[in-house]
Write a structure and sequence with these properties.
The complex is a heterotrimer of chains A (368), B (314) and C (287).
Chain A: E1 5-16, E2 19-30, E3 34-38, H1 45-53, E4 60-65, E5 68-69, E6 80-83, H2 95-100, H3 110-123, H4 139-152, E7 157-161, H5 169-186, E8 189-194, H6 197-203, E9 206-211, E10 214-220, H7 221-226, H8 231-236, E11 242-251, E12 254-258, E13 265-268, E14 279-283, E15 290-292, E16 302-313, E17 317-324, E18 329-335, E19 351-356, E20 362-363
Parallel strand pairs in A: 3-8, 3-9, 6-7, 7-8
Antiparallel strand pairs in A: 1-2, 1-4, 4-5, 9-10, 11-12, 11-14, 12-13, 14-20, 15-19, 16-17, 16-19, 17-18
Chain B: H1 2-11, H2 16-52, H3 69-74, H4 80-85, H5 91-122, H6 125-140, H7 143-154, H8 159-166, H9 180-205, H10 208-216, H11 221-232, H12 234-249, H13 253-259, H14 266-275, H15 280-307
Helix pairs in contact in B: 1-2, 5-9, 5-12, 6-9, 7-9, 7-13, 9-12, 9-13, 10-11, 12-15, 14-15
Chain C: H1 2-7, H2 9-15, H3 26-53, H4 70-77, H5 79-112, H6 118-130, H7 133-146, H8 153-177, H9 181-189, H10 194-223, H11 226-231, H12 239-249, H13 253-279
Helix pairs in contact in C: 3-13, 4-13, 5-8, 5-10, 5-12, 6-8, 8-10, 9-10, 10-13
The chains are: A alpha+beta (368), B mainly alpha (314), C mainly alpha (287).
């Protein structure tokens, strides 16, 4: 096993009766990485995190931290610490005692433990709150104390279970950046659970998108955003524009897709994955789509004729909802400070051409 | 509440007139019957024995008339019953009442905590109501009959002796009844639900994530129990202690039925003064002392709850 | 199901035997389960033994000598017991009626209004629950003696009412605490006067609490020995007093039989009260 691997999940499943919360998941998390588990509620991300923390026992599979198999170790014997969604600060202890809670088990003198707790509070800019009770703190302050408490333990891996969920939007944005900076400067491995794709994208080095107990895609965060591999990930990443086509030809890493577009779409693809006549699905992000009055073949763009069903003003964007003649619905984002060239000429109920650069075509993984 | 009511009255147009008339008188009208009954037949009798406790016993079990009030008060004679109650003769009774109440309370706590924990945290949700109901039922069934059941079990011809003799384990019946052991069993048996219920109530409110957090920070189970679970369920523990200790120390049915003469408690002593010795002033003095102990305990409890900033569970 | 799994992981942990951290190891759970089973055994074995013995042929010993209903038959012939049952029913009935009405009124005053003397009223209502019964018993009997109030069944009823009001007041007040006042405002808004509002909205809503309080008081009253033993006049012997004197004389199967019947009555009452509390959405009894 490589030096640089921090957590290794091997074929881990967790079943509650007939329900598989986590279904044969394998993945590795690198040292010093900000790793996010992203998915809708019920996808198994929290259960997976709790298995790393030792709060749930996997039904099958192994979990390694560093080089050690910790699958059967209770939480108090694992070199990981958790920031709980509810923060889980002890209401009967003040801030400093909360932070120093676990240091008692570290064979430190009590003054050393106090100092360490103070250092940890400094780190999250909560110095001066040592004697407050958790009940006297705001949500954001509680979140910081919970973070300080986990950091004081100097864990090999820090687990964070939607720790920003209870904060309001503005504070949330601030804390995201702070947390990311903290992680970078400490060089710690963070495993972060969230259902918010934007949050995951802002902070993570890599993201594992989970659905129904499985990892749908594990990639660098920008990769997950730009090149979703499955329809679920595309949808979750805000690109619900699905097209169906047929592979026309494939050679030397270039594939031509035919279908309803006016011209064949040329995309890069591996030659051994696809055969001619294979049915194929692909997506185009809404912000990469354009509306035209004419079929646009300039610059090699492809287009489809659609009926405009609705337009919704959303401040930064205007969303056009259109339907192609085969009945699929698509969303097109028009940036309001850079409107479409012919924007004024479209009306709801009218016809138009939806076009895009073939570069922006993202082909879905082949399903067998 | 009252403030809310007046604002309501002004808002709801048609009812302003009726509303405005009622709030002042209404609570007093509603509360008068309760005050009459409790005042006349609860508080007044208590005040009455308080007064009597400073009197002296008359020849026929009544009160001796006092000739010279000044002398009576100045000489300190009015405290004679209290002085008598502190005589060494009665010390063993007080001591026994005290330690039995303490041991009963301690045993109840030790026995109740795991079962309360089990019902509140471990038991499957669908069993919870049933398990709780099974605790509540003895709570309200006749204390007298439940105590009597132990007579059937412990007496010379009782269940335990019969079984042991038939099994050939003993030749002569054991003396299980009419001693302090029997009283102890009866007290613990009777008071157990009073401990389980408040413990359950506070364990049920316990946020289990805190136990996870403790474990996450390196505390093993015993350490988590003492550093997190116990401090956080302290309101239930203290409420249970108060709820068990008070009836235990004033007990007289259990000691009368299961204890016999050698295991007399304060309750029996008081009862004796009224039913047998016919020394009401003296009995009143002890009754009042018992009440004072109970009230002090409750005040201490109220003070503790307030200090902790928690709402009292009683 | 998946939703609740994500949002409340602690409950999953609590129920899933393999989960650690929040909850004890399997052996710790097993041990606590075993302990709980023993406690339930301890709580119920004496009661079961009592009931079983009431059907035992044997008069003196604890040996099983065959099943019989004869002790129940004997009860029916025992004039003293029948009389005491009658007295107990009268006392419990009258106590329940009076204390339910008075206690409910008090609860309404406490739950609804701020008034002078509210604190004192609460303290006065609290006292009967905390003062040792024996103290209350001797205080009452001394008081009745001093004001030359002849001990009778009336003195028993009065005493019971005096300590029962508190229980009704507490139960009903708990129910009132969870009461949505806007319902009353809605009724008034729809044209109901205060009296109509009370009978058409308030009372139906607090009724489960009132009934639960009444059942509670009934069981307390019918079971009470300590206070009754001091204040019962000649011919006003209640069932617990009768049982007590029979126990003092010696163990007889009739006592087992009559105790069994009394247990049966109270258990039925409790189950009924519990059901009412639960039906009414927990009655605001907790939290």
């Amino acid at each position: 096993m490589s030096e640089s691997i921090s957590v290794e999940i091997q074929e881990v499943s967790k079943r509650f009766g007939d329900f598989a919360a986590v279904n044969r998941v394998s993945l590795t998390i690198q040292k010093g990485e900000f790793f996010s588990l992203l998915g809708p509620s019920g996808c198994g991300k929290t259960t997976l995190l709790r298995m790393i923390g030792g709060f749930e026992l996997p039904t099958e599979g192994r979990i390694l931290i560093g080089d050690k198999d910790v699958t059967h170790l209770p939480p108090y014997k694992r070199p990981v610490n958790m920031v709980f969604q509810s923060y889980a600060l002890f209401p009967h202890l003040n801030v400093i005692d909360n932070v120093a809670f676990g240091l008692r088990y570290r064979k430190l003198s009590s003054s050393a433990a106090q100092q360490k707790a103070r250092d940890s509070l400094n780190l999250v800019r909560m110095a001066g709150y040592e004697d407050r009770m958790p009940g006297q703190l705001s949500g954001g302050q509680r979140q910081r104390v919970a973070l300080a408490r986990a950091l004081a333990m100097e864990p090999e891996v820090l687990l964070l279970d939607e720790p920003l969920g209870a904060l309001d939007q503005k504070l949330r944005k601030e804390v995201q950046l702070e947390l990311k900076n903290l992680q970078k400067s400490l060089g710690l491995t963070f495993v972060f659970v969230t259902h918010d794709q934007e949050e995951a994208l802002t902070m993570s080095d890599r993201i594992a998108v989970m659905n129904q107990g499985r990892v749908e895609q594990l990639d660098a965060s920008h990769h997950v955003f730009e090149y979703p591999k499955t329809e679920f990930v595309a949808q979750f990443m805000g690109a619900p524009n699905f097209f169906t086509g047929v592979v026309k030809s494939i050679a030397e890493g270039l594939m031509y897709i035919g279908g309803r577009t006016d011209a064949d779409i040329r995309v890069r693809a591996s030659s051994d994955a696809w055969r001619p006549e294979d049915p194929i699905r692909f997506v185009v992000r809404p912000e990469k789509l354009d509306l035209r009055t004419k079929s646009g073949t300039s610059d090699g763009e492809v287009s489809i004729e659609v009926t405009i069903e609705d337009r919704v003003y959303q401040g930064v964007n205007t969303v056009w909802v259109v339907r192609s003649d085969d009945g699929e619905r698509y969303f097109i984002y028009e940036q309001n400070d850079r409107p479409f060239q012919e924007s004024g000429r479209f009306r709801v109920g009218g016809r138009a051409f939806m076009s895009w650069n073939p570069r922006d075509t993202v082909v879905m993984e082949k399903t067998s | 509440m009252g403030v809310k009511r007046t604002t309501t009255g002004t808002r709801t147009g048609t009812s302003v007139k009726e509303e405005a008339a009622t709030p002042k008188k209404a609570p007093y009208l509603l509360i008068t019957p309760a005050w009459l009954v409790i005042g006349l037949f609860f508080l007044l009798p208590l005040i009455f024995i308080f007064v009597i406790s400073f009197g002296a016993r008359g020849t026929y079990g009544g009160l001796k008339p006092i000739a010279d009030w000044g002398a009576y008060l100045l000489s300190g004679e009015f405290l004679a019953n209290y002085r008598q109650s502190l005589e060494p003769l009665y010390w063993p009774i007080y001591w026994r009442s005290f330690w039995m109440a303490v041991v009963t309370t301690g045993l109840c706590l030790v026995i109740s905590y795991p079962i309360a924990y089990y019902i509140a945290i471990i038991a499957p949700a669908r069993w919870k109501n049933l398990l709780l109901a099974l605790v509540v039922i003895p709570f309200w069934t006749s204390f007298l009959i439940r105590t009597y059941a132990w007579v059937l079990i412990l007496r010379t011809e009782g269940l335990i002796n019969t079984v042991l003799m038939q099994a050939g384990l003993i030749n002569a019946p054991l003396d299980l009844l009419y001693n302090e052991f029997a009283v102890m069993v009866g007290l613990v048996y009777g008071e157990l639900p009073f401990m389980i219920l408040p413990l359950y109530a506070s364990l049920e409110k316990l946020d289990l994530t805190l136990l996870e957090a403790s474990s996450d920070l390196g505390a093993n189970h015993p350490s988590t129990f003492w550093r997190v679970t116990v401090p956080l369920t302290m309101p239930g523990i203290v409420a249970g202690i108060v709820l068990v200790f008070i009836p235990s120390i004033g007990q007289f049915v259990v000691s009368d039925l299961l204890g016999g003469a050698k295991s007399m408690l304060v309750g029996n002593l008081i009862q004796n003064q009224f039913a047998i010795a016919r020394n009401k002033p003296f009995g009143s003095a002890i009754a009042f002392e018992l009440t004072a102990v109970v009230l002090l305990l409750l005040l201490a409890y109220a003070w503790w709850s307030k200090k902790k900033g928690q709402e009292a569970m009683l | 199901m998946p939703d609740s799994l994500e949002t409340s992981p602690q409950f999953v942990g609590a129920r899933e035997p393999a989960a650690r951290g929040a909850t004890p190891f399997r052996w710790e759970r097993k041990l606590m389960g075993l302990h709980s089973a023993l406690v339930y055994f301890f709580l119920y074995a004496p009661i079961v033994i009592l009931i079983v013995f009431s059907f035992n042929e044997a008069r003196q010993t604890a040996r099983w000598e065959g099943f019989t209903f004869q002790w129940y038959g004997k009860l029916m012939e025992n004039k003293l017991i029948l009389r005491s049952v009658q007295n107990s029913l009268i006392v419990a009935g009258a106590t329940t009626l009076a204390s339910t009405i008075i206690g409910t009124l008090a609860a309404l005053a406490l739950g609804r209004y701020a008034f002078r003397g509210k604190g004192a009223t609460q303290a006065a209502l609290f006292l009967p629950i905390i003062i040792p019964e024996i103290v209350f018993g001797v205080a009452l009997v001394t008081f009745f003696g001093a004001v030359q109030f002849q001990l009778s069944i009336w003195t028993v009823i009065i005493s019971h009412v005096a300590f029962s009001i508190s229980y009704v007041a507490i139960v009903v007040r708990a129910r009132l605490a969870g009461f949505d006042r806007s319902l009353e405002e809605a009724a008034m808004d729809l044209g109901a006067g205060p009296i109509q509002t009370f009978f058409r909205v308030t009372l139906p809503l607090i009724l489960p609490g009132v009934i639960a309080g009444a059942l509670l008081v009934f069981t307390i009253s019918i079971d009470d020995y300590v206070v009754s033993s001091f204040v019962a006049g000649a011919g006003a012997t209640t069932l617990p007093i009768q049982i007590y004197s029979m126990i003092k004389v010696g163990v007889t199967p009739e006592v087992n039989a009559v105790s069994t019947l009394l247990l049966l009555v109270t258990v039925v009452m409790i189950l009924f009260a519990q059901r009412l509390q639960q039906q009414s959405g927990d009655g605001g009894n907790k939290r």
